[in-house]
Amino acid sequence: MVYAIMEINASDDLLPNVTLGFSLYDSCYNELRSLTGTKWILSGIKDAVPNFNCNKHVRPLGIIGDVLSKASIPIARILGLYRYPQVSYASATPSLSDKTQFPSFLRTIHNIYYECFIVVDLLKYFNWTWVGIIVSDNDLGRASLQIVTREHEKNGGCFALQEILPIFPSIESVLRIVDAVKKSKATVIVLFCTTENLVSLMEQASFHNITDKVWVGTTGWSITTDFPRRDILTTLNGSLGLANQNGKIPGFKEFLYSIHPSIFPNDPFMKTFWENAFHCVWPGNYAYNNTSPALLKNGTVWCTGKERLDSIDTNIYDVYNFKYTYKVHNAVFAVAHALHQMKNCVPGKGPFKNGSCADIYDHQPWQLLHYLKRVDFKNTAGEQIFFDQNGDVPISVDILNWQLFPNGSNKYVYIGSIDAGAPKGQQFSIQLNKILWNAGNSQVPVSVCSDPCPRGYRKAALQGQKVCCFDCLPCSEGEILNPNDNSECFKCPEDKWPNSRKEECLLKPIKFLSYEETLGSSLACISIVFCLLTFSVFCLFIVKQETPIVKANNRELSYLLLISLMFGFLCSLAFIGRPNKLMCMIRQVMFAVIFSLCISAILAKTITVIIIFSATNPNSKINKLVGFRIPVYIVPACTLVQIMLCIIWLTRAAPFAEFNMAAEKGIIVIDCNEGSRVLFACVLGYMGLLATISLSVAFLARKLPDTFNETKFITFSMLVFASVWVTFIPAYLSTKGKETVAVEIFAILSSSAGLLVCIFLPKCYIILLHPELNSKEYITRRNARSQQI
Questions:
Q1: Domain contains 334
Q2: Would you tell me the crossing angle of helices 630-653 and 555-571 to the nearest 10 degrees?
Q3: Whole domain around residue 87: which residue ranges?
Q4: Do residue 274 and residue 162 come from a single domain?
Q5: 283 in the same domain as 210
Q6: Mean pLDDT of residues grouped by 10 in the chain (789 residues)?
C-alpha cells in the first residue's frame, strides 16, 4: 500500500500536483477490532462517537480492507449507510456481491463463489469421481458444500464423505473427521475451510500419518504460513491449491530490498522487523524488545544497519509471490483513478445534478463511490482493472502444487491458471509435468469408487450404493454403449453393426455368393466342367447315332435329356453373383422347368422301354399303344404343367431380391425371397412327383429282357436323384445366407451329375472301350442264344 501511494504521488500522469496520504490500522483478524478501527478512521478519534466526525483538516477518502470476510461484512454494513467507499483485497465471500446489503463495497479479489466451479473443474480434469469434502461451519462453507455437491454430481461424481468442521473444533469432532478420512477409499479430499480452524485438523491428520491423500485447497488457506511443522507439510505434500493470481508489480522487489529503519525512522515496526530478520538488537529500540541496556553487553549482537535484505531466505522474506500484495496495489490505484476522473471533470458535463462536478478536496463519499464503480484502467503491469455490477473483478487464479523437499523446505509450485476473461476453451490450463504428488509420485492419483468400465461395457448400479459405485456389464449383441450415457446401451440400426469396441455402429458388410470367392468360383468351375462333359457325351452320341446302343430306347429322348442336363448344369451359374429382381425370378423358374424336362425325358424313356418290350409280346395289352407314340407326348405335357405352375408363381408372388439382416450376425446377406413359399413348394413338389413316377416305372421295368435295357440304370439314377433332393430339404432349411444358395447349387450339380453318370456312363463305356458289343452281329447272336435257351 505504501509503495502504491508513493508511485501515485511520484506520477506526472495520475493525480498530478495531488499528494495522497494514508492511515494504517491492524485489525488482528478480529471483527470487533475491525469495527473499532473503522469508527476511529471515520471519526478521527480513538474513542469514536457514531455520526460525529472530528477530522478537522482531512477526511479519509475510503477504506482499503479488510482481509477476512467476517470482518469486512460488519464494516461494509456501516459504510454502506453513508455510501462510503470500501475496497477489499481479500474478502471473497459471495454475500458481499449483494449490492442491496452492501452498496458501497467493492473488491479487487474475485468472488469465492466461482472457486467452487474451479474445484469441480479440477476434479473433472483429473477424473476424480469419488472424493471427500470438508467445509467450515459458516455461511461460506455451507454454501460451498451445496454448490460443489450439485456441480460435481452433474459431472457424474459422488462424495465418499461430507464433513462440517466447527469454527471452534473440539478434539472429538476433529478425531471423528480424521477417522472418516482415514477409512475412506477416496484419495482426494476437498477443503473449504478457514485457516484458523484448519490447523487442528491438519495436526491430527499428520499425527495419524495420513499421507496418502491429495488435499485440494482454496485461496482461503492454500498459501498459508500457519503450517510450519514438517509433519504437517508431509501430510500436505503433493496437494493442490488455488491462489490469487501472482500479479506483477514492477519495481516492488527492489523497493522491498531498499527499505531501512533510517528511511522510516518513525515506524517502530521497521526496527522490530529488522531485529527478527537478522537476529540482532537495534540500538535504542528497548521499548519494543523489552531489554535493558545492561543486559545487551553480554555477547548480544547489535544491528549495524548494514545488513542486506536480499540475503534473507525467501521463506522468511518473500519478494516474489505477490498474491494479496497485488490485490492491495490494484485497490489503491482504483481509488486513485477514481479521484483522477473526479479531478478532470468538466463543469456542466459532470455526472451529477445539472452536469455538476465534485471537488476532489471537498466531496461527499457517494460521489467518489460513483467514480470508483466505473473505473477501467490498466495497472502498472498492463492488466485491465474494472469492477462489474456487483463490485467484483473477473476471476483469475493460479493453481499451485505443494512440494516438500528432502532438506525440509517446501515450495508452492505454479502448475497452471484459470482466467475467466480468456476465450472459451482457453480458460483452463495445467502443466502436468510440473506436478509432484505425495511420495514423489509423478502419476496422477486415482480416486474412484469403481474402476471405469472397459470399452463395450455399461455401468450397472449397485443397490443401496451411490452412482459412482457400480458393476460393469457387457452390452448385448448388436448394441453399443450410449456415448451420452455410459449406463445404458442401445441397438444399432438394422443395416449397421457395432465395431469391435462397441463404440459406434458401422455399416454391415454386404455378403452374397460371388464369383470372386473360393466357394462361388469352385461351384462355377464344376458346373462348367460337367456341362462340357455332357456336351462331349452328346457329341459322342451324335457321332455314333447309327449304332444300336444309341438307337436303343429312343435316341431323340437321349439327345433331349443330354441337352437338358447341359442346361441344368449351366442354370446353377444363375445362382452365383449379386442377386437382383430379374435373376431371382429367372433362376428358380429356369431350374424348375429344366429339371422337369429332364425327369419327363427319363419318364418317357422308361415308358418307351416298356412299350417296346410289350410290342414283342403278342398277348400284352400295352402293344395296342405302340402306334400312338405316347412317349413323344409325355415330355411336353409334363413340362407344360411345370411351366403353368411357374407362370402362376411369377404372377401371384414372384421371387425378389432382399437384404436379409438376420441371416448372419453383423452381415447383410443379399438373397432371393421366394415370394410365395406355397407356390415354391408346389413347383418342387411337382418335380418330386415326376421323379417318384419315373422311379416307380423304372423299378417295375428293371428286369425286362432287352439287350440294352437301361431301366435298371434309370432306376439307380432316380434313386440318386431322390436321395439328393430329400437330403436337400433339411439342409436348405437349416442353412442361412449364401450357404443356402450353395446348398441348392450343390443339389443341382450332384443330382444332374447322378443322372449323367448313371444313365450314360455304361453306354459310353461300351461305345469307347467295347465297340464289338455295339454291333448288329453281337445283338443277333445274343438274341438267337436267348431264343435257344
A1: yes
A2: 20
A3: 1-109+328-382
A4: no
A5: no
A6: 93 92 85 86 74 71 88 92 93 90 94 88 91 90 90 91 90 93 93 84 90 87 67 85 84 91 83 86 66 53 87 79 85 96 93 92 92 93 90 88 79 82 73 84 88 85 86 87 82 84 84 87 93 93 84 80 91 88 87 89 78 59 55 83 90 85 79 85 87 81 59 81 83 79 89 88 86 70 49
